[in-house]
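yo

u said u wanted the structure for the complex thing, so here. seqs first:
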Amino acid sequence: MSPLPGYLLLSAFLFAIGLGGALMRRNAILVLIGVELMLNAANLNFIAFWRFGAHPEALTGILFVIFSIGVAAAEAAVGLALIIAIYRHYKTTNVDEMTALKG
Amino acid sequence: MMAETLDQVFVILKHWLVGLAPSGCQPVVSALLSIVPILLAFPLLFAVTTILERKGLGRIQNRYGPNRVGLYGMLQPVADGLKTLTKEDIVPRTADEAVHFIAPVVLVVTAFLVYAVLPVGRNMVAVDLDAGVLFFFAIGAATELSVFMAGWSSRNKYSMLGAMRAIAQMISYEIPLILSAVTVIMVAGSLSMVAIVEKQAGCTGWLPNWYVFTPWGFAGFALFMIAATAESNRSPFDLPEGESEIIAGYYIEYSGFKFALFFLGEYLGLFAVSGLGITLFLGGWHAPWPFLEAIPSWAWFFAKLLALIAGFIWIRGTLPRLRMDQLMNFAWKFMLPMALINVLAAGIWHFMEPGVSRWMVGSLLVIGPYLLLGRALMEGKQFQKRTYHFAD
Amino acid sequence: MTLSFAIIASVTVAAAVAAMGLRNIVHCALALTVALAGLAAAYLQLDAQFVGFAQILVYVGAVAILVVFAILLTRSGDPAHPSVLSPGWLAGAVIAVVVLGVLVYPIARSPSISRTLPPPAGATVHQIGDALMGRFVLPLEVTGLLLTVALIGAVIIAMREKEPIGTISNPGSEIANRKSQIANPP
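structre next:
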């Protein structure tokens, strides 16, 4: 039996854990950590399909993941800069207290 | 014939020992026989370096180094080892115990892991990875996390401050380090360390083919060594751990064996990055000229490594410490533009015909920006006339 | 399922659960690092060497340190809230479970591929470089542009804004001159 379902299940679990954590935690930085976990789960999916799927010589899965890693790093940098800037203003990182746009 | 046997003596020994093992566990025995010499040789080199450094620094500072233990103090590492092993291991009461324990372990593990790709001699590399240089830099980047863990888990403001400074310094100097290695990778056309060493074989005329003997290679080697000094937190870049500044920075709260592990990890990192510099720029285990090929390849590697270590000790004893803002300015405003221009120079060198014009263009592209950038950055700094105060 | 895959998978899932569940946020960041390293090991097991090492270099070596720095710079002085969970945590948990079900259902129901494993595709660095400079040169250039923009943007967003002139920390030249005049009467 091909090991592909094992990797896909691992990826699904990681994605669900990341999503649950991003929705359930109070701290803005932990939301970002959850988003990073989701991105990594998707990357694992790409590499697993590249390895066990059709046309591995086209290297599409690997290159997608390389660009995804780069974009995720840029997004983490900007997101954390935003959190730092917001912290300077609100003096808290609690997402439930950043309600200035409400109502 | 005799020289070649001496050159390959370790490889022949390993094959013979693997042949003795039962055929089922031969891969495991082969892997173990590659790893154990690394685990023995480099800590031994660490012990030798500690005594060489203390004696060397002592002589530079016009005093004897340690000279009580053994002949001329040569057994000092044994005394040091006994001391650190028997010292009491104090952990602060409010420290985060799990992270406090794991930090030195992570440092030593990652420091040892990078030796797997260093080619120590002909056919003497533990693992020949296709992306060897990338592996080296990846594991080197993971070292910084242990610095943070050490600084944070001690719950000490000074150690936290030292850790943040150390991490800021390490990530700033990682970019010139990697960029100067990229020039070599570009010209050699491969990320595999064995392939890069093989490209530097032979001589053209009387000049060895090593990359350090080209204009961009020389500049790249200088940048690489400066960045390596900063990456290992060695003087003149040792503000995060300077004894007179912040009392050992991020490992203030460590004592006994864990402190020895930090010390070991720092020196192992130094040897590893020197080994990478030798592989990339100084021709690896090659002899400079063909008539010196009788000396074995691993002896050449260790001779070059000892020469670089002597250079590090010399610089430590000579130059004063850089302040934090001077350090960061130096990395971002001087080394990064120089490294980028070096990449350009290496590319132009690669595509020109060999000859005098190539050397002139290469040297111009390296020396010109160095002078201009240095001149521009020195403007606006006021230097007072140097005065000396002697004790009368 | 081989033993090595079982070990890697269990370590990664445990670290991910710890990254999302622990109370101390620095421990969460360190558990995230372990999870990312576990994923890098999974990539290496899938014969994607370049991606595995790039994952360690970028994620463990840069993103994890960035997260840790952000945690240190935003530590609030007030004591920890009694609950680490947001008020709407139940809805979040339900959504996560539903998404897990949606993802696992097709995996479980698809016919198991019983064909023989294809030989390792051997993605050497040379081939990746050729692809990057050939077929994928446009994404490469756009990613370079994106990283430059992100770098400049992050620096500008996180820069400490200059206080308006006239406040205590930024007196401006006039007020400073007045102050020094008062301090040192001629």
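Chain B has a mean pLDDT of 88. The two ends of chain B are 65 Å apart (CA to CA).
cya
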